[in-house]
Amino acid sequence: MEHINKIELQGRVGTVRTNIVGDNMVANFSMVTEYLYKTRDGGAANETTWHQVTAWEGRDMPDLTQITKGTPFHVTGRLRTFKDTNSEGVEKQLYEVVAYKIRILTEEEAA
């Protein structure tokens, strides 16, 4: 049986932090996606979700310095989960998209 862990998201960049680790650049950024739908009474509704993404420079990656706040893009990667304990001692389950392909979109493609 083949196991699959693949996620594709299209949205816009929120906050960005880049670092150099060894000889490679890594970008950690948030991205927002929106799901538009109609409610039962016919009104419009919008569900906004924030995601955390980690991208290492390399093949199928743009220049990571091009990833700035508001940039529209499409990301393909895998979902990673881990637990973290905050300063108050509360353990939380966190989710992160580890990107292996990013395509920066034009405004027309993002619309």
The main β sheet shows up as: 5 strands, mixed, barrel
Shape: globular
The pLDDT mean sits at 94
Structural class of the helix and strand makeup? mainly beta
Query: What is the helical fraction, as a range of percent?
Result: under 10%
Low-confidence runs: none
**How big is the Rg?**
16 Å
N-to-C span:
38 Å
Q: Beta-strand level of the residues, as a percent range?
A: over 45%
Report on the structure:
This protein has 111 residues and is mainly β. The chain has one helix spanning 107-110, and strands at 7-21, 24-38, 44-56, 72-85, 91-104. The chain contains one helix and five strands, in the order βββββα. Strands 1-2-3-5-4 form a five-stranded mixed beta barrel. The protein is globular and about 55 Å long. The N and C termini lie far apart (38 Å). The mean pLDDT is 94.
Descriptive terms for the model:
64% strand, 5 strands, 111 residues, mainly beta, single chain, five-stranded mixed β-barrel
Write the layout of secondary structure elements.
Elements: E1 7-21, E2 24-38, E3 44-56, E4 72-85, E5 91-104, H1 107-110
Parallel strand pairs: 3-5
Antiparallel strand pairs: 1-2, 1-4, 2-3, 4-5
What is the structure about, briefly put?
This protein is 4% helix and 64% strand.
